[in-house]
C-alpha cells in the first residue's frame, strides 16, 4: 500500500502564536482516529525557522546558513506520513486535517507519494 508525505505549510508569524487548546484537542482526536484506522504512520510539528539551519550544495561547494529565514513567508510547520489505498484517500484525510483548524489559520498541505524501491 502506498505511503504519502504531507508537508504542512503555514504562515510562520501566525503559527508563532501557537494552536488553541481546542485545535489541539480536535487534532489529537483526528490523529487517534487515523492511528486506529492504520493510516497514520508518523506526524510532528517543526520548530520555528529561527532554530533551523540550511545546508546547501552548489557548484561543488557547501554553505551553511542558520535561521531565521526571513525571505520565506510560508514555511513547513510540520508533516505527516500516512499509508493509504490510493492518493484520493490520502487527500481525504488531508482535507479532514485542514478542517480541524479555525478559520483564521492559513494552512496548505502538499501531498506527495513516497517513491518506493
From TrEMBL:
Q: Which Gene3D superfamilies match?
A: Dimeric alpha+beta barrel (3.30.70.1060)
A Pfam family this protein belongs to?
YCII
Q: State the family it belongs to.
A: Belongs to the YciI family.
Q: What is this protein called?
A: Uncharacterized protein
Q: Name the species this protein comes from.
A: Streptomyces lincolnensis
